[in-house]
Amino acid sequence: MAETRTRSLQLAALVGLAALTVKPFEPLEELLDLLLSPARVLAELGAPIVGAATRDVAAAEEDLRERETAELQSRVELFRDQVRYALPPRGELRRGRTFVPAEVVRRDRDHLDRVEVLLDTERGIEVGMPVVCGEAYVGRIQSLDPARPRRAVVALVTGAAFAVGAELEVEHGAPVPLVVGGTVVGDADRAGSFLLAASNPERPVEPGGRLVVRELWPELETHGDLARGFHLGVLERGGRGDLGARPLLDYGTGLFQLAVVAPDTVPTPPPRDPLELFADGRWLAARTLSVGDPSARREGFKLGAGRWNGVRPGAALAFGPRLVGRVARAGTLTADAVLLGDRGLTVPAVARIEGRARPHVLGRLVSLGRDPATGAVRFAWEAIVPAPGGEPERAQVFTGAGDPGVPHGLVVGDTLLPPGPGPHVLALEEPVDARRVGELWVRRLDDGDAGTAP
Predict the structure, then answer these.
(1) Is the pTM of this model over 0.90?
(2) Is 83:101 a contact under the CB 8 Å cutoff?
(3) 92: Cβ–Cβ under 8 A, 6 or more apart, which residues?
(4) Residue range 61-87, pLDDT digits in tens
(5) In 247-321, which ranges are E strands?
(6) Residue 124 and residue 165 in one domain
(7) Is 395 strand, coil or helix?
(8) CA nearest 360: which of 403, 395, 335, 392?
(9) 390 and 414, same structural domain?
């Protein structure tokens, strides 16, 4: 009788564990995490002995270490180029203005028409000042946070309630004043395509001209002169016949490095250290407690750190300056991690194309899994802003900005970047199989800084 009862309990436990793999139940997972923690601690204590005997793990980690110096230098070059190209190249747009670099650090999924930025300095910055990227107009400062130095919220021109004065440049005759703000449907045959809405032109207009900012009511727009002349796009007709400007940027997923336009009385801030990311004390060394994932379709492992150590869902996993994965679930003492080859993992991305100085923003990439033949990780890329050139070009891909869990500028991999409108599939090559790494770094986050789900 006792034996039958024991077998029934074992069967019930197996059924329960199987159910968890289909539909996780957070309280039960936390309980199992605590109950199994002694065994995991013993496993971690024994890991150095196992790791010393595992030649492929040691070789993989050594290969990654040898690449660190070159990849750190690539990160420095990317950072400096992004800051430089966030400024307008033309003299007339620079005259009488100071540009304060602003890196996007968060996008709120409930408020997609605004972004939170980290300013190089808050000195002289005011609500209403325009925000740009290169020659493209992005929006204006909506608020400054006194409790958090150098933090500001930017309202984007895509917002339904946003309005900025503009003029349409025409081949013959005077420019046509109108208003730009919000969005209209773009190409009806392409999902998600939109234009910046253009409304109330003073006279009938035809598509083809360039739209630039020109505020006509300075008493309503106190910093309108600072925004004058920045581009909004080329006038088109949308899928429903509405007028709109074809965006110069990927406003939805591709805003990474911006600049606030201030009067020239505001001093130019000293440049930030491109390597400060790796010296902010928010990285934790952690061991992998298992290799691989029980499912053949997944790529992941158990991590020997959890919420107790500051690990949160969405946090980046890195080896030196290279991104290898993200945290999917964080228990009290351990966490479930997924690698780049795990289907559905997402990451904001930017590329440095060989022979081109200007970084190319890719937006958000979505993993389609690992190619079993080549070992490359395949990513879906919408290519809202297509790559330049007429032929595929070699490029190194880095993490973009705006996801609190994934720092800006980590190396993701190398790829051949196809030109033209998307969608495309990118095959990213990793020089070392991250599934063989036994120890890595995890980004520590506060509860309020949890990243976008991987």
Answers:
(1) no
(2) yes
(3) 229
(4) 565 565 677 778 888 899 999 999 999
(5) 257-263, 283-287, 300-303, 316-319
(6) yes
(7) strand
(8) 395
(9) yes
